[in-house]
Amino acid sequence: MAAIDYIKPEYYTNRELSWLDFNMRILGEARDKKNPLFERIKFLSITASNLDEFFMIRVASLKDMVHAKYTKPDIAGLKPEAQLALIQEKAHYLVQRQYSTYNRSLVPALKQNGLDLVMAHEDLTASQREFLDQYFEENIYPVLTPMAMDSSRPFPLIRNKSLNIGALISKKGEKSKAEFATVQVPAVLPRVIELPAGEDGHRFGILLEEIIEANIDKLFLNCDVVCVHPYRIMRNADLTIDEDEAEDLLKEIQKQLKKRQWGEVIRLEIEDKMDEKLLKVLKKEFAVKADDIYPISGPLDLTFLMKMYGLEGFDHLKTPPYAPQPVPALSEEPDIFEAIKKKDILLHHPYMTFDPVVDFIRKAARDPQVLAIKQTLYRVSGHSPIVAALALAAENGKQVSVLVELKARFDEENNIIWAKMLEKAGCHVIYGLVGLKTHSKITLVVRREEDGIRRYVHLGTGNYNDTTAKLYTDCGIMTCSEAIGEDATAVFNMLSGYSEPKTWNRLALAPIWLRGKFLNLIRREADHAREGRPARIIAKMNSLCDQEIIAALYEASAAGVKIDLIVRGICCLRVGIPKVSENISVRSIVGTFLEHSRIFYFQNGGEEELYMGSADWMPRNLDKRVEILFPVEDKEIQEEVRHILDIQLADTLKAHELTADNTYEKIDKRGKVLLCAQDYFCQEAVQRAKKPEDPKETRVFIPAEPVEEEIS
Fold this sequence. Notes:
Largest sheet: 10 strands, mixed
CATH superfamily of the largest domain: Endonuclease Chain A
CATH topology of the largest domain: Endonuclease, Chain A
Strand content: 15-25%
Structural class: alpha/beta
Number of strands: 27
Helix content: 25-40%
Oligomer: single chain
Number of domains: 4
Radius of gyration: 28 Å
Shape: globular
């Protein structure tokens, strides 16, 4: 038989189109009437925020390739220009669906529930107009800066992602000589202005730009306003940093951040009824093509809906907040070091609280027996208790080494602030490695004890961010395993110097060793299957787009390995290809929490192995980042992690399955137990907090109501 070519382009999906499919699944949650109304609003806001970042980074990168005449096709056989054409087609459709959802479903539903979003100033009552006239004079007018364009005033800088109002104005009686003018909608003011409630308690809100439009004549006195319409631009925000040439990485990144406001315009959003003459000015000044222009039927920039989610008085239209539960393994031993000494501890966020991770570092900062703390930081919260604890540890005389990744996209500015603060406190701060992002999540605490030096290690799949730990699903392990402790020391020596160990005890690191580790594990399963031994792979991650990994999965599938993939976002693998991927299933879970954990199970002929880590199966994770894969060796924790995978594979309410025609469909619920994995884990954690001594008693499927059909 002829060998199968597993890298044929038709066996792969373009990663950008797959990402757009993922954002469409999030939009599906906004369209799902079974979800509480304000949760639907939040999901719609997330799709808008996601799309902004996608254009600023991914679309911008493709445009750079086109400008550079780069023509190499991707793994699906598409050149950059072809990718852009398909992206624009799909993105335009996505935007149309966003606004169909907003206008036809969410706005009417809000009105039915006592909140009327007034879409135009002329729809207001006389008393409401009077209120807004006064509000404009007192609160809005003093903040506005109208800018006109003429021979003495060039076209102004329009900031990335800012909402603006464009106008054509002319001197009184000279309408034939209309000039362009613009005013930025101030981000410092609330986007939704709430009006006095009606006598029946009905509440009203109007968007800030509607008020400015209605009063635009007050900004351009002695002029006629020919037309006025909102617009918004997206610029290329992908930083280009030559790290080899940069004398000071921190200063170089600070300099590049300022350039984000000057990047090429890659997307222009306009009101769909914009005057053609005004649009002509914008097209010329921003140098955008027709495909890059997005006419919008509704308010531009739907990210304002996330702030609307916080409106008081609508709790009955939201999912009740979940309080992360105590970690059962820590319930009987208040001393975290003693608890870790007894046995490895599994953390499963946000179902279990993130507090033990913070307490681990706080305790280490104060403990006189602790000699050193070493940690990697990729993204942290605005008021990070972990950073505060590290600073305290340095002030207490401990050796504190922190790698702060300055290249964490869109967190660069935040991380620069933290790095400077930690340095002032006396910490040794490393600004990442040249050419690589340090994405691993590891903390090492070195402690002097009666029987000698002991190393305590925390390894995780998610960031050291106490805020997102309430929103993202992640796993972590706390251990004082001597083998892992030695590896952790080697990791930090490698990050702070140039020492690379020849061998590792338990950990596998990218960019040198991790790709080979995964490929060996996958190929070993294929060998087991060929020889008739038990062979199965279950892998959970955020994204899957590495060609070599996918080809290895295809080969394992062809050998008879059953492969279940739980991939939240991008998936370039295709299922159902005869003799190639018939044994592979792919599912994506989109729910209240963002699925973020990376878990890998290999049946290994009956000698099961489980791993967790910081890396997805993507080229950037395996080749361009410092990532850590760590084994789950404790038998009880192995059972718990396998239980997590089993419940995710049993989800019938929030899971979408990839089909052979390369589309995602909700699970067919006929004859199946109705189960939402995230709800299950929430209730399980609550029950375990009540009965920490017998966690297995809580493993019961939770019945749920069937989901209604989505709106058309």
